[in-house]
């Protein structure tokens, strides 16, 4: 086995250095690829059994490892949909066949369908807010959807919450029960009135008339009507009963609502959702009437821009300045990231050696933090790769010399019989 083994060992050395050069070439080619993870050839010896004074040369084998757990430097951009991870974790993306993968390549842009895709065409996955605040599925991909932002879509938000804060003068006169606004008589009287704009399910404006009327010592009736039901050129009687009515009771010692008094009023907006108006800050003090109010909801607006927070929540920013949570992006991790299976397009899939995928949200459970407006560059260092290239080239040449020497000696041995 001597000379033949020597030649075989030289071939194994050249093959090993060839693999090393291949990884170096890949690394250099992808040095500017976002999310790329450096490949390297790991060497291990191959020993053949020897006996007596005979030595059987073995060789060298290689295994390819990827430095997946090593982060690349962050580069900040001007795109709000570019994402990077500062720390541990991966984004969950989906291929064309619907299979989920993991990636650190976070340069996402909307495609023709409004789906956020990266340079390799993989679609970003997230949990939708359509059914309420999302919760993570810790050990699987169930519940994830493709993040889709249709900027041409008009969205109307119905009113659901509001506030009404007023000072009701303690010196106001009491209105008789028969003439209270809640009775909806033509002779109705009230102490003070204001109006609030609310939005129905289609984004239409609904004007609500709010009457505040003193009914007795430290008691006030609050009644809400639909302005559309008011009598022409006047108010009472309205065509329909009040949308809601309640009685507030004040503490005479401090002018604030008494402990047993209602603190809000709920009603159904015409054509809309249930609106709850908070009145917990109402007062009855010996000063002039003053009132402020606010109701949420919005008319139909298109998405003006997309904003992503550090906790991974994707917000739609509308033309009126309002915003709405659409998705929350989870981060994934495995027990051994460097053992993940590498797939074309800077994506990874779990393997038997990597462990199962665990999902969580940004900044929780040892996961890193989502950094919007940035991308993670390749973790390749060009200087290191060029040094490795020179070293591999020299080692390849040295191994070729071993093969060449063995070949020459073999030829000499064959020619001995001539």
TrEMBL record:
Signal sequence interval, chain numbering: none
Domain Flagellar basal-body/hook protein C-terminal intervals: 372-416
Keyword annotations: Bacterial flagellum, Cell projection, Cilium, Flagellum
Residue span, Flagellar hook protein FlgE D2 domain: 181-292
Domain Flagellar basal body rod protein N-terminal: 7-37
Keyword Methyltransferase: no
Sequence ranges assigned to domain Flagellar hook protein FlgE/F/G-like D1 in this UniProt record: 84-150
Compartmental location: Bacterial flagellum basal body
InterPro entries: Falgellar_hook_FlgE_sf, Flag_bb_rod_N, Flagellar_basal_body_rod_CS, Flagellar_FlgE/F/G, Flg_bb/hook_C_dom, FlgE/F/G-like, FlgE_D2, LlgE_F_G-like_D1
Family: Belongs to the flagella basal body rod proteins family.
PANTHER family: FLAGELLAR HOOK PROTEIN FLGE, FLAGELLAR PROTEIN
Function, in words: A flexible structure which links the flagellar filament to the drive apparatus in the basal body.
Protein name: Flagellar hook protein FlgE
């Amino acid at each position: 086995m001597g000379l033949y083994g020597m030649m075989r060992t030289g071939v194994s050395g050249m093959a090993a250095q060839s693999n090393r050069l291949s990884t170096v070439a890949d690394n250099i080619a992808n040095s500017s690829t976002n999310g790329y993870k450096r490949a390297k050839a790991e060497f291990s010896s191959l020993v053949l059994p020897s006996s007596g004074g005979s030595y059987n040369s073995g060789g060298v084998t290689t295994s390819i490892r990827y430095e997946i757990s090593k982060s690349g430097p962050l580069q900040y951009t001007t795109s709000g949909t570019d994402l990077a991870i500062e720390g541990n974790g991966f984004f969950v993306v989906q291929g064309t066949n619907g299979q989920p993968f993991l990636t650190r390549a976070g340069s996402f842009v909307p495609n023709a369908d409004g789906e956020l895709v990266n340079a390799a065409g993989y679609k970003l996955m997230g949990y939708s807010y359509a059914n309420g605040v999302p919760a993570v599925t810790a050990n699987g991909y169930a519940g994830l959807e493709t993040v889709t932002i249709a900027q041409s879509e008009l969205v109307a938000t119905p009113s659901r919450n509001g506030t009404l804060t007023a000072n009701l003068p303690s010196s106001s006169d009491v209105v008789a029960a028969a003439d209270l606004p809640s009775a909806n008589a033509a002779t109705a009287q009230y102490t003070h009135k204001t109006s609030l704009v609310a939005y129905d399910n289609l984004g239409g404006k609904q004007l609500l008339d709010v009457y505040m009327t003193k009914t007795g010592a430290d008691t006030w009736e609050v009644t809400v009507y639909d302005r559309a039901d008011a009598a022409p050129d006047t108010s009472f009687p309205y065509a329909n009963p009040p949308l809601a009515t309640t009685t507030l009771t004040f503490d005479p010692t401090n002018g604030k609502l008494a402990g047993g008094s209602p603190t809000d009023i709920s009603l159904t907006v015409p054509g809309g959702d249930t609106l709850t108006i908070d009145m917990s800050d109402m007062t009855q003090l010996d000063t002039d009437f003053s009132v402020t109010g606010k109701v949420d909801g919005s008319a139909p607006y298109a998405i003006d821009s997309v904003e992503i927070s550090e906790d991974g929540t994707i917000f739609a920013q509308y033309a009126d300045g309002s915003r709405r949570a659409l998705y929350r992006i989870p981060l994934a991790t495995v027990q051994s990231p460097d053992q993940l299976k590498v797939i074309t397009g800077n994506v990874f899939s779990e393997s038997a050696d990597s462990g199962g995928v665990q999902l969580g949200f940004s900044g929780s459970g040892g996961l890193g933090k989502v950094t919007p407006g940035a991308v993670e560059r390749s973790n390749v260092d060009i200087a290191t790769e060029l040094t490795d290239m020179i070293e591999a080239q020299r080692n390849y040449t040295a191994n070729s010399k071993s093969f060449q020497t063995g070949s020459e000696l073999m030829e000499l041995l064959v020619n001995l019989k001539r």
